[in-house]
Amino acid sequence: MSEHGFWDQDWMKVQTAYWAQWGEWARKATGGDTPAEAPWESAMRHWWQALAPGAPDAGGEFMQKMIDQGKMMFGFAERFNAELAGQAGGAQWGEVLNRAFAGLQKSFSGEAAKGDDALHRMMAFWEMPLDNWQRMVSSLSLTPGDLLRNMPHGDPQANIERFLSAPGLGYTREEQGQHQQMLLKVVAYQGALQDYARFFSGIGTQSVDRMRARLDKVGEAGETIESARALYDLWVGACEEVYSEQVMTAEYAELHGRLVNALMALKQQMAAMVDEGLGAMNMPTRKELRTLQTRMQENRREIKALKAELTRMRRELAERPAQPKAAAKAPRAKAARKKSVARNKTAAGKG
Amino acid sequence: MFPINIRPEKLAEEMAGFSQKLGKGAENLLHADKIDTGVSPKELVYSEDKLRLYHYTAAEGARQNPVPMLIVYALVNRPYMTDIQEDRSTIKNLIAAGQDVYLIDWGYPDGADSSLTLDDYINGYIDRCVDVVRERHGLERINLLGICQGGAFSLCYTALHQEKIKNLVTMVTPVDFQTPDNMLSAWVRHMDVDLLVDTLGNVPGELLNWTFLSLKPFSLTGQKYINMVDVLDDEKKLKNFLRMEKWIFDSPDQAGEAFRQFIKDFYQRNGLLNGGVRLGEREVDLKGIRCPILNVFGEFDHLVPPDASRALKGRTASKDYTEIAFRGGHIGIYVSGKAQGTIPPAIGQWLDERSG
After folding, report:
1. Which of A12, B94, B123, B355 makes an SS bond possible with B67, Cβ 3.0 to 4.6 Å?
2. Whole-complex ipTM
């Protein structure tokens, strides 16, 4: 392989394979037989799978993000193209859009047909805010962020809460109580997370409506969207607009607060239980450490205040005007006289 | 007319273009050198705990305002945003505008710093840095420039130590934390900050990253990477992109106690306007500010809405108040080409006129 072999040769092979399959795929698409993964997409996937192991982490992550967004962008355009290709020449564009958007709406209500990858990608786009949350939670925890996401919710949750509210019995009642508290907080967090997810699913359908409205405007203005990128940008703009409206509502503020608070309550309970275990093994606990940190900061604050005071006093001392000569010399002169008298007395004694 | 007309051959062409850019640019990306930030020469003049105070060195013989300027950056993110690269450096341009620039770098607080309060930051760290600069220049009063949260700190500091500040510049600084368009304010309304800080100690940078990305999730976590494909084959543009990316995710943890007070007093109680922000034994009253004020903000700032900054007007006892509204966003005000040529020179001129 030449110095740039992979890029120049392997990449072009992938491209060639892609072009070869493109025609075939397009033929199938126009016949309504859309494969789950487009050939260009699988080509891109294979290329990246071959390359990724040798890529530095940061660079690899960027590439993956770009590829994912590229799939999203082209998948979206293909989705519309497939819809349009199947239309009879005389169909009104309003009807065509209605059909296309009906599919998108289904994706947010969970009714999308299995194997409709473009729809799933659209849905995944609206999972971005949630995905960001999961990543953040993962970074604060030893467990994956979505560990609690698919726990039962609704009536089973109420039953679990009722069961967990029963008081503990016997010697281990305190420990039982801790575990019950822990599970109750798990259930509360999971409920908050599901409500949060439901909210996003709801505004996902609104963004489809907004996209439809934006397309209508484009049509009314006699303009056309001619590239996947322009369509993608329109979709991002519609999503961002709906999102910014909805996350400023009182409902979202409450959901957001509940989600963060539920996670913190859960983590606090986990920390308390870990502390119990550490204490039992005579190991330093988080609580003790926190006490030490607070005391240390109090000490630091006091030391800094004392240093500042000392500096101020030194400066004041240095800046104090020199004592008048006569006054300053007087005591020394007096002392000198006393010494002289003493010396004279001693001398007289010796004599 | 049908609003979508993406012809298959055009789509194929677009895909091919995208793929070729990816393939060509992947090499640039995967072999990108270490990303450097902070380009202007500087010397360390004071350090304390994790804080570092830097003095930026001007070219020999360059004209300099006799009154030095101390920049107070936010605790959130890193201050190298102000000096991110050779052709996008607010600091470099402030020096070019004749200012003698100092900057506080707060460092990365760890667990041992979790009990640092706003009093420690403002009446402690900032005050000692101001004293160091005053002493180095033999001046009673210096110029202070606060950025974002650092701007709010600078307002508090000036209100409490007016005798040490000659002129105050605030950039993208929130004053009214509860304007109707302030997303962050809406989101923390129901947040139990005591529970959060008691649980986490320091507030992790990841939590802040998530919050900031959540302001525009589709643009910042999706569309941005499509835009990146366009610059992949241009090494310089790619490095600029990576530099910004590095800065965005370079979020220090926040000292827990300072975070607790900032959210409660500033966001939840809107204390700069309503009162109630106590630092040590004194309460902050913006009427304590009597020096000239220059308030610079972004008209399209999604993090600190312009009205949040405009609220400063008329709230202080200053008789010399000036506003500059920049047609850009929270970050663009430091890094955009337009800002480079307008904002630092305007700040320099405003200060020169008042530093005699």
Report:
1. B355
2. 0.87
